[in-house]
Specification:
There is one protein chain. The protein is an alpha/beta fold. The strands form six sheets. It has a six-stranded mixed beta sheet with strand order 3-2-1-4-5-6. It has a six-stranded mixed beta sheet with strand order 7-10-9-8-11-12. Helix 23 (479-504) runs antiparallel to helix 26 (553-572). It starts with a strand and ends in a 7-residue tail after the last strand.
Length: 859
């Protein structure tokens, strides 16, 4: 085996493949928050990284095309003329690809007037003659002509298929050195090589097998038995020879190179880190960013081991200093590490074991002492388990970061330390406190500059203790109710299973997408969707089944089966096991940074996705009950997003309808269908309702037609008629999109903002989604802020009045409380007033109240 192994990478081949693989798959384009496209850079980078890791080449080069016309184009101007222009999104990524290669210390080879194939051929031949093993990394079959001896070809796009001369012969049907002859005869549509008219691939292979080479074939053309082949060879001799010249990879191009310059070298960590950060490749950034050894070595981190040391630490804190607090993480319980960390400056931290926590209690509960944390809400929940009511937490790095980015996945302490501080967050409590402190220092000026301070101070920070209290309180559920529902569902699932098997004609695993697809699209021959994915299998996703359900009973039954099985597994059977044995209640986690719109999300368990429109979903809600003898109070904003649409658009028809207390869907039906309100039919109202909410969510005519089961043209007419009558809404939508195009983000009436990097995308699907987001964000985001602000004010009023009533859950636009009977009327009036007067709009906010013995009956 050779001492040296050189990998020559056909760069543009893989860059194009990386770009088109994502765009053709329908996946959203990869972009930074500033709108920079990155998918080709990311995929190409990962391929090189993997090649280096798995095959350990000693030498490597990324080969690029010449920018100048090549000798082939000079001889035959139509060469590659049918290739499309490089898409702008891809062209914008090439400079970043080159920067990435430079940072990875991967040399770039190119030669003026020559293609990448010629550079690869030249270097491969010369390196092989020097005794080096050469691996051409490409998916281009033309380069197989180089294979032989110590030159092989690796195709990462085909699961790392490795071609030696034997494999190349098997794949192409001719010896590697006869591939130019083959292409000269059959032509190449990709490169626009004309070839011999009338001679296809099979004919070309047969002729070469009989005559050995192209030159011998042309010399002995009169011997060719098939007349059409013979005439083509005799008539187009010069074209065929030119085609061979075009198809032959040059191996003597004047490429400036030497083997030592291609030696594999370590990457430039600094440049790579800078590029990863700029292109927001945060998962890759983590691989190059380690804990800052220098700062750690110089840091002042200590663990306090006596009560006196804790007291001295608190006494010596600067009087007005913001002090960050953090807990040492454990597996599933933040206090498992039994350590509380404190920090008031970068590189300084003190760890206080939980046994000395009583010495911290007065300070942690002093609202006058300014404190900071990452995720104040979760910290307050954990401190409460130590019997400490944390107060004075006015700074939260999680909330600052989320308001700035609206990125639920990028706001963990680990992610922020990596992205903002260039290091890991650390494992100890004192390191994590120092990271939280430094993050607050860096993020606060950005918060001010972005105009987000008021939103932060009046809604997000005051909400943290409210959410902490809700999490600690939890909500009661009755397991016996769920057990009864589970038994009913089991029976129904068995019935659906039997029905599906009967329609299929045999039993099979309904939960297996492969088996289900075989039954639906092969055995029953239902209209099949396009095959997708690497395996080219049929999709059995919900949208596919929904398109079949109207005409095919088996698809409808499978949808019912899936919905029932999911409800049973996710809620009915799972919830009883999640009851806290100490409190006897269910404690969900409420995440203020869980949705880009600003809405709260719920997890472990997610209580926001229990369906309300199905009997099974309502049955599950019946298991949610108050404290024995108490009542549940449910307060729900009525049509809040449509009311916000009226407020923000100032559309006179919408304003009049809401101010007069009209049914908005009936009013829309009257406007769209030209029917007096009293004569609007239930079906017309249903369609108008779909249009109303479709407008809010940016629904297309195609989507509306699918939802209502009407022709697309009719749906287009509904939407056109809507905008004709609601011209203010049309202007509002246009304004939202125009502003997003100008600023690259959408902003709500409370100044919450959401980046929209795809607003200028050349991908129609991505751009369309971005435009819908630009319209929907001001509505959903404002609705989220209104209910959050109402929660803050309601909680404050509960405290002021010393009420025992508890806020339990927030589910989208509704709040759920439990209240003792003597407080229920006062609570209902208080909640209605605070929610309806939380912010002055051009139309009244309306709250629907329900009181009952469980969540279902309180609706």
């Amino acid at each position: 085996m050779a001492d040296h192994r050189l990998f020559l990478i056909d760069s543009f081949g893989f860059i194009f493949r990386a770009y088109y693989a994502r765009t053709s798959s329908g996946a959203s384009p990869m972009r930074t928050s500033q709108g920079i496209p990155t998918e080709a850079v990311y995929v190409f980078h990962n391929m090189i990284r993997r090649l280096l890791a798995e095959y350990s080449p000693t030498h490597i080069a990324a080969v690029f095309e010449s920018k100048e016309p090549t000798f082939r184009e000079k001889e035959f101007p139509a060469y590659k003329a049918n290739r499309p222009e490089m898409p702008p999104d891809l062209a914008a990524q090439i400079p970043h690809v080159r920067r990435m290669l430079e940072a990875m210390s991967v040399p770039v080879l190119e030669c003026s007037g020559y293609e990448a194939d010629d550079v690869i051929g030249t270097v491969a031949r010369a390196a092989a003659e020097q005794g080096t093993e050469v691996v051409v990394v490409s998916s281009d079959k033309d380069l197989l002509q180089l294979v032989g001896g110590s030159v092989s070809m690796l195709d990462p796009a085909k699961d790392d298929v490795w071609y030696d001369a034997e494999k190349a012969l098997e794949f192409m049907g001719v010896e590697p050195d006869r591939i130019p002859d083959l292409l000269a005869l059959k032509g190449d549509k990709v490169d626009n090589i004309p070839g011999a008219p009338g001679i296809g691939e099979k004919g070309a292979k047969d002729l070469l097998q009989q005559f050995g080479s192209l030159e011998a074939l042309l010399e002995r053309a009169p011997e060719v038995q098939r007349k059409s082949y013979r005439q083509s060879l005799e008539t187009h001799r010069e074209q065929i020879l030119m085609s061979k010249r075009l198809a032959t990879v040059e191996t003597a191009a004047p490429v400036p190179w030497s083997l030592p310059q291609l030696q594999v070298r370590p990457p430039d960590r600094h440049d790579l880190e800078q590029l990863y950060r700029e292109l927001e490749f945060f998962s890759l950034l983590k691989t190059v960013v380690e804990a800052a050894e220098d700062s750690a070595a110089n840091a002042d981190y200590q663990t306090l081991s006596r009560v006196e040391e804790v007291e001295d630490c608190l006494e010596n804190l600067p009087p007005e200093a913001r002090v960050a607090v953090a807990l040492q993480p454990g597996s599933g319980n933040l206090l498992e590490g039994n350590v509380i960390g404190l920090s008031h400056k970068a590189g300084w931290g003190r760890a206080v074991p939980a046994e000395f926590a009583p010495s911290l209690t007065a300070w942690l509960e002093d609202a006058a002492k300014p404190k900071a944390a990452h995720d104040v809400k979760s910290l307050l929940v954990e401190l409460a388990r130590l019997g400490i009511e944390g107060r004075g937490f006015t700074d939260d790095a999680l909330l600052m970061a989320f308001l700035l980015s609206a990125d639920p996945g990028g706001c963990s302490l680990e992610a922020l330390a990596l992205r903002r501080l260039g290091r890991t967050a650390g494992a100890s409590a004192e390191e994590r406190a120092a990271a939280a402190w430094e993050l607050c220092e860096r993020l606060e000026p950005e918060l001010e500059a972005a105009g987000l301070r008021t939103l932060y101070d009046t809604i997000e920070v005051p909400l943290a203790p409210v959410l902490a209290g809700m999490e600690r309180t939890g909500i009661r559920i009755e397991p016996e109710v769920l057990r009864a529902i589970s038994a009913e569902m089991e029976t129904e699932i068995a019935r659906l299973t039997a029905g599906i098997h009967t329609l299929a004609g045999h039993e099979f695993n309904i939960n297996s997408p492969q088996q289900l697809a075989k039954v639906l699209f092969e055995e029953l021959a239902l209209p099949a969707p396009e095959r997708t994915g690497k395996t080219k299998s049929y999709s059995t996703a919900a949208d596919v089944l929904e398109s079949l359900a109207a005409e095919h009973a088996i698809a409808r039954l499978v949808l019912e089966y899936r919905q029932l099985a999911k409800l049973k597994g996710t809620y009915v059977d799972a919830l009883p096991a999640l009851i806290n044995p100490r409190t006897g209640r269910l404690h969900t986690t409420l995440n203020p940074a869980g949705a880009a719109t600003g809405r709260l999300s719920s997890s472990e368990p997610n209580l926001q996705n229990i369906p309300i429109r199905t009997a099974q979903g309502r049955g599950i809600r019946a298991a949610f009950v108050p404290e024995p003898g108490w009542k549940l109070l449910v307060a729900d904003y009525s049509q809040i997003e449509l009311r916000l649409l009226a407020h923000l658009s100032r559309d006179p028809v919408l304003l009049e309808a809401f101010r007069n207390g009209e049914d908005i869907h009936t009013r829309t039906a009257a406007e769209v269908f030209g029917t007096p309100p009293l004569m609007v039919t239930p079906e017309q109202r249903r369609r108008a309702k779909a249009v109303n909410f479709g407008i809010v969510y940016g629904q297309s005519a195609f989507g509306l037609s699918a939802q209502l089961g009407i022709p697309r043209q009719e749906a287009e007419e509904y939407i056109a008629s809507y905008f004709e009558r609601y011209a203010g809404v049309r202007r509002f939508i246009d304004k939202c999109i125009a502003e997003a195009r100008s600023t690259r983000y959408a902003r709500t009436m409370f100044d919450r903002r959401r980046p929209i990097p795809d607003i200028h995308s050349s991908n129609p699907s991505a751009r369309g989604f971005a435009e819908r987001t630009a319209v929907n964000t001001p509505l959903q985001g404002a609705a989220a802020d209104l209910i959050k602000l109402a929660m803050v004010r309601i909680d404050a009023e509960f405290r002021r009045r010393s009420l025992n009533t508890r806020m339990l859950l927030q589910v989208h636009d509704e709040l759920i409380f439990e209240s003792p009977p003597e407080e229920i009327d006062e609570t209902a009036a208080l909640v209605r007033r605070e929610m309806e007067t939380v912010h002055r709009l051009e139309v009244p906010l309306l709250v629907e109240l329900g009181i009952g013995d469980n969540w279902r009956d309180a609706k």
